[in-house]
Specification:
About 70% of the residues lie in helices and about 0% in strands. By secondary structure, it is mainly alpha-helical. A hairpin with a 4-residue loop joins strand 1 and strand 2. Helix 8 packs across helix 11. The termini are far apart. The relative contact order is 0.11.
Length: about 475
């Protein structure tokens, strides 16, 4: 019996067992419609798995296509519901089915997955998601915690396999193209159906573009990633100036960044682009840093009213919006008090979805479902254990980047780190678009051994002795 067939069979049995326990035993079935949905979630991934197996489960095209589907479906929102709602509605069940296919494909490509897990950063992130799943034991929403953690694990493992099975050019262009289509849909809705496209924030006084995602910050992150992937593709020689990603994708992304008013995504994008630029041309990066420092000195010497600057960058024109980071400092204070009561283990992965609304509300009744900080969110939900695992993962990824000069991994590391100062979208609950891209670019394939060359022979263009990294 072929090894791949055996792995597919074992993965199918494991999926059936997981669905029976998770969907039938832990989550009560209240109607025939819900039962039919659960049956679909169980059966559809198996049909897709065996279809992929028949087409070559480890094939580049099938894995790239599945990557695009996962990326599109992960944060696509076709309904509105309460922040605290953790029920398994049809949209969540469809997403679980898609993530489940990714998990099954990763498992049946065990040889590739085992190679990926030899990289400390990939192994540590997988271990982190397993710890998240273990916190379901004491979580106030155990089923949601377990489901979200399994989904994170599926994305991490599939991303590791996809990075080693698909060419770098496709991994840059396909996600950027898929996200560009979603951004264009959002801009079209903004024109023809603004009531559906805009989200009310700041007590209903500020309207920000969110469609086709659930929140403006999700749209902003997706837009920033389109720009970042396109720029990396251009730096690596995979995207040319005449590509539609340049003349259509980047303008659409910049428009969505402005209309979503996502300053965190903009700041993370700027940091990642500076890092990409500095990695290619260190001297020019140093010159840019000197210019910025000089501008800072000039500003300190001029008599400029802070309120005038606030009016330029704030949504409400108030200085307090900037000094409180749009109310984040109040959220951090409330979450920190809860951390002090349960510092070691936390309250359970994604538990902030029901706990934060109980401890924090604004004057207008607005609340949050995560701590708006990656580190506080991880500490609040999974304790000091989760924080140490996350820190170890990021340090291992940094070490990998320094060792391999992997430009994509380095850029995503910078983006995740900076965005994590004001958001927790990559680890707050179920996977996000940023989670998918981080897992995909976390680590890459081991570089092929250098072949002996004749004296005077030149290396192939676009490649270095270190594989997929920058040229030395």
């Amino acid at each position: 019996m072929p090894a791949t067939f055996t792995l597919a069979l074992l993965a199918s049995c494991a999926w059936l067992l997981l669905c029976v326990v998770f969907l039938l035993v832990l989550v009560p079935t209240q109607s025939g419609f819900v039962l039919a949905l659960k049956m679909g979630v169980t059966i559809v991934p198996l049909l897709l798995l065996w279809g992929l197996y028949a087409a070559g489960a480890g094939g580049e095209k099938s894995i790239a296509a599945l990557l695009v589907v996962i990326l599109v479906i992960t944060e696509l929102s076709l309904r509105r519901r309460a922040f605290e709602d953790t029920s398994a509605d049809p949209q969540n069940l469809v997403k679980m089915a898609v993530w489940g296919v990714g998990l099954l494909v990763a498992l049946i490509n065990w040889g590739t997955l085992r190679q990926a897990l030899r990289e400390p950063a990939t192994a540590l992130l997988a271990l982190t998601t397993l710890w998240f799943a273990a916190t379901a034991v004491y979580s106030p929403i155990p089923v949601y915690t377990l489901g979200a953690a399994i989904a994170l694990l599926a994305v991490v493992l599939f991303g590791a396999v996809a990075r080693r099975s698909v060419r770098e050019s496709i991994l840059l262009k396909a996600p950027a193209a898929a996200l560009t289509v979603m951004l264009l849909v959002g801009l079209a809705l903004y024109v023809v159906a603004p009531d559906r496209a805009l989200a009310q924030t700041e007590g209903g006084t500020v309207l920000r573009l969110a469609a086709p995602f659930a929140t403006p910050n999700q749209l902003g992150r997706a837009a920033a990633l389109v720009v970042l992937l396109t720029v990396i593709g251009m730096a690596r020689g995979h995207v040319r100036w005449r590509s539609f990603l340049v003349w259509l994708g980047i303008p659409a992304a910049l428009a969505c960044l402005v209309l979503s008013q996502s300053r965190t995504a903009g700041g993370a994008l700027l940091a990642a682009l500076l890092l990409v630029y500095g990695s290619k041309r260190p001297r020019r990066a140093l010159a840019m840093a000197i210019v910025l420092a000089a501008l800072g000195i000039v500003y300190s010497m001029l008599d400029i009213d802070l309120a005038d600057l606030a009016a330029l960058v704030s949504r409400t024109g108030h200085v307090s919006e900037l000094t409180t980071l749009t109310g984040r400092t109040a959220i951090w204070a409330a979450v920190w008090q809860q951390i002090l009561e349960q510092p070691l283990l936390g309250y359970g992965h994604a538990a902030g979805k029901v706990l934060i609304p109980q401890i924090y509300r604004t004057f207008w009744g607005w609340t949050a479902t995560h701590a708006h900080n990656m580190w506080l969110q991880t500490w609040f939900t999974t304790g000091l254990v989760g924080v140490l695992l996350l820190l170890a993962t990021l340090l291992a990824q940094l070490r990998y980047c320094l060792r391999t000069r992997d430009l994509g991994s380095l850029a995503l590391l910078a983006f995740v780190f900076v965005a994590g100062m004001a958001e927790a979208g990559n680890l707050s609950g179920a996977p996000s678009v940023l989670t998918v891209m981080w897992a995909l670019w976390l680590t890459g394939p081991a570089p092929a051994p250098a072949k002996a060359q004749a004296p005077g022979a030149r290396a192939a263009p676009g490649r270095s002795a270190r594989g997929l990294g920058l040229q030395a």
